Amino acid sequence: MADTLTLFTSIGLSEQKAKETLKNESLSSSLKEAITQAQRVHGASGVDKAMGTLLYSMASRLKDTKRLAFLSESIAQRKICTELQLAAALDFVKGHPQDPINQKEFDEACGVGVVITPEQIEEAVEAVIKKHKDQLLKERYHFNMGLLMGEARSALKWADGKVIKNEVDMQVLHLLGPKTEADLEKKPKAQKAKVTENDVKVKKEEVAVNGDAVSGEGKSLMEQLRGEALKFHKPGENYTTEGYVVTPNTMNLLKKHLEFTGGQIRTRFPPEPNGILHIGHAKAINFNFGYAKANNGICFLRYDDTNPEKEEEKYFTAIKDMVEWLGYKPYAITHASDNFHQLYDLAVDLIRRGHAYVCHQKGEELKGHNVPQSPWRDRPIEESLVLFERMKKGLFAEGEATLRMKMVMEDGKMDPVAYRIKYTPHHRTGDEWCIYPTYDYTHCLCDSIEHISHSLCTKEFQARRSSYYWLCNALDLYCPVQWEYGRLNLTYTVVSKRKIIKLVETGVVRDWDDPRLFTLTALRRRGFPPEAINNFCARVGVTVSQTTTEPHLLEACVRDVLNETAPRAMAVLEPLKVTITNLPENFKTDVRVPDFPADEAKGSHTVPFMRTVFIEQSDFREVMEKGYKRLTPEQPVGLRHAGYVISVQKVIKDTQGKVVELEVTCCSSETAEKPKAFIHWVSEPLVCEVRLYERLFLHKHPEDPSEVPNGFLSDINSNSLQVISSALVDTSVKGAKVFDKFQFERVGYFSVDPDSTADKLIFNRTVTLKEDPGKI
């Protein structure tokens, strides 16, 4: 240890830095080897501090240690003399993982032997200053000198940065002279404009389907996913990705992959068909399909149907419907079960290669991370082949045997299961198989079979990345790259399949599409437009970190879309009868109502106006209150769109003293004094059912024991659903179809529910209007 410490300090490391390096076993070993290599060229005392700094930087940044000797020698021979050259050298070896390295190409890429003269630097800086001379004279020392440096460096890639800076400083001083007092004053910072809630809105022209939504940072999802934005590898350059494992056959396999795909980006969305997709899946759909679309690629919808016990036809159908509802069309719909025969043959090959074995530990013993090493791990290959064949033929009971892979996962789990026995008929293959592959075995192999270029998955699968690469390489197959991104979570909800099933079984919700849930079918039923969900995913952005967001941000995206797309109608939820006594008994006229008052060119509809109308009970108060602007015995009110102002003449009550009818008179709004408010109304209306929804749970995190000690089922909001069976809606909604959307003026946004019949429409409140809750 002391000898190594002395070795490290001999190249210029401080004693503290040397001691820190010794704590890192991997770095310590690499650096020691690099110094030894350099000393072979220069002797024990011939490695100076400049060379030592480069050796340390190289050893700490190099991922592929088989290139250590080559780079150490390049530094020792003074081919690599600067940090700039070292960065280029590291990039070159990363992009050329296979031997032999082409020395000529390496030298050209790293500027080996390139000499930049002082005259060249002087000329390059002169050219840059001449280009910006007018602006320099105007702004003087407030000019961004970094721009001059950057352009000079671009012209002379391998020049010493310090020399360039000195030349820039000297020539600027010659042009401008010494700094004056004005030059020394700080440049005033441009004031940032305040961002209001309206500024954050997705503007009218920004509302779009199929991923062309705009994020809170002003970048559309397509822009976030396009080209270099994510720093993903280019097709066929998988080996440039950190952590990707290169084998002697990797480059040949990548070449064949490129021949097959033509360099096209290929992604997949691989849900298990054992539940309904939820809001978190919307991000996954937008990410997988969106990344392919943004880069002229293709995306598969692949059902991960490897567990026959939980799969149902309704889930297959619902998943496809939701993908298409969000605006995406799969390039092809595939199933893991399409590959069952090929997967079995690959499992046999894995055993033959000595990488898998048949094990008889029970299922419970295989759970968790502290699984003891199997006593069957070293059983002969031929024996495992025979036993695996017997598993396939159904000669073992369930749980009596599994096929396990000989590897340790990143989370410490040892020898994950590749195949297990299940005597359950499969949705597609019937009873052809009684052994089924696991996710850990199936996923990467199906990606390989489909020539996926970018295997995008949520962050929790990061622990499986090493097993993903290991299995493809163990079978000598094309290996895609796995990229992880952060999950999208919402507060005040649960999305676990098991927990939603519990909510359904206990009668808390009706089914997977109950509008209080955040499954995609539930959001569609509630009236959320797909564009709004895509806009929400764009606003959240493509993040690696896990995101937890509040529902009101999603609801804001919904309002933005519906404000532009949902025609207006009038509806009264709690009706109060109003008789206009100064109109004839048989009076009836049509009133024209714009579908979109802010843009009347988008159309209109007519509603009847008669002697009897209905208003909201809350729009009348018998006793005047300070600040109340609507109808009272002393205060008239206008009727929206009708052109009339009404004044109360008589208040009629039932035997319990409840107001049941008002007798009023009306006059034209053109001649009357302008009222303080205009209210909505209906006349000769349709009787409809309206369902009003609130949050299903009382707490933000219903699954968190510290917030909800008695479990999520104890956190149900008993007022999450209010049914109004006899709401009155104007006749313009007659003939509306399921999922048609409206804004009921002054009430909220509503959508037609599938429970509607020819005799009675049912409306779900999608979201409330954005009004000040304190407004009366």
TrEMBL record:
Superkingdom classification of source: Eukaryota
Catalyzed reactions per annotation: tRNA(Gln) + L-glutamine + ATP = L-glutaminyl-tRNA(Gln) + AMP + diphosphate
A GO CC annotation given for this chain: cytosol
The EC number(s) this enzyme carries: 6.1.1.18
UniProt entry tagged with the keyword Nucleotide-binding: yes
Family: Belongs to the class-I aminoacyl-tRNA synthetase family.
Function description: Glutamine--tRNA ligase. Plays a critical role in brain development.
UniProt name for this protein: Glutamine--tRNA ligase
Organism: Oreochromis aureus (Israeli tilapia)
Gene encoding the protein: QARS1
